[in-house]
Amino acid sequence: MFYTSPYSRARQTCNNIIEGIKDLPGVDYTIREETRMREQDFGNFQATPEEMERIWEERAHYGHFFYRIPHGESAADVYDRIASFNESLFRQFQQDDFPNILVLVTHGIWARVFLMKWFRWSYEEFESLKNIPHCHYLIMKRHDGGKFFLKTRLLTWDDVDEDDIDAQVVKEVGDEVCFNSQNKLTNPEDLDISGIIEAQKIAIRQLREKNKKIKEAYDKIHSNGNGYTDYREKMVSRFKLDNQSVVNSVENLSGQLSPTRNFSPSISGTLSPPSR
Predict the structure, then answer these.
(1) In angstroms, rounded to a whole number, what is the distance separating the alpha carbons of residues 115 and 123?
(2) What tens digit of pLDDT does each residue of 74-103 get?
(3) Where are the annotated coiled coils located (predicted)?
(4) What SS3 state is found at 267?
(5) Is 67 in a helix, a strand, or coil?
């Protein structure tokens, strides 16, 4: 079964995937559009470059998850949509005729928030994630006992060497701002992203330092013996080895699954329902 966002790029990506499998023997599928799978709304208004620069700088300082784009959404708003969507999925999982493979064709921020909700990641974990590349497969697999594991490795800003942060921020911010500012600027050639880049560099380094302190606190408590067992169990999920954290995303599928050259920039994720 395929669920796809109604946005045109996701539709195109879904169609391209179908073209690749429709003639395979024994492959049956259905396709459903789901409006709750649309990408975060970045606003419908026409803005000046100065206004867009202000919005993106504020977002970098405030945090990508909670900052609400004027006339648009925050990632927290997307989280609420996904919570409703997941409830619908869970009900469908109980149906006897539900297929054993589910493919979600969606978008980058939506995919990260979906994983955050599904695996109960913390706010810090979400903010630590780097952008997911266009046309990237995210594979979730159910293990014995019904627990899902994320098989595709996700990269975080903590994985980046200090010397490489500036260059990677320039690329990510440039790609993201330009893509999400399309058709929203009266004079797009006047957009100056230098201030946005600097704000994002500061935010990433502050987050890395925060994560370092959290880990140091966890390691210190963890080494203090049995007296702190209850407290250890309540520590932020990022540093628990038995959770579905990004540190458990260990399988790199980039060499195994290669989208065709003309795929549109959407995200494909696969999800298998629990056995009945």
Answers:
(1) 12
(2) 999 999 999 999 999 989 988 888 888 899
(3) 197-224
(4) strand
(5) coil
User: How far from 144 is each of 108, 222, 253, CA to CA, in Å?
Assistant: 29, 29, 22
Residues written for the chain: 276
Confidence (pTM): 0.75
Other Cβ atoms closer than 10 A to 211: 20
> Within 13 Å of residue 185, how many CA atoms lie on the same side as its CB?
18
Residue 137 three-state SS: strand
pLDDT score at 14: 94
Packing angle, helices 75-93 and 108-119, rounded to 10 = 60
Rounded to 5 degrees, φ, ψ at 54 are: -65, -45
Domain boundaries, the chain: 2-271
Residue 116's nearest CA partner among 70, 41, 170, 64 is: 64
Give the rounded distance of the alpha carbon of 76 from its chain centre: 12
Phi-psi region of 191 (alpha: psi -120 to 50; beta: other; left: phi over 0): beta
CATH class of 2-271: alpha beta
pLDDT category, 15, cuts 50, 70, 90?
very high
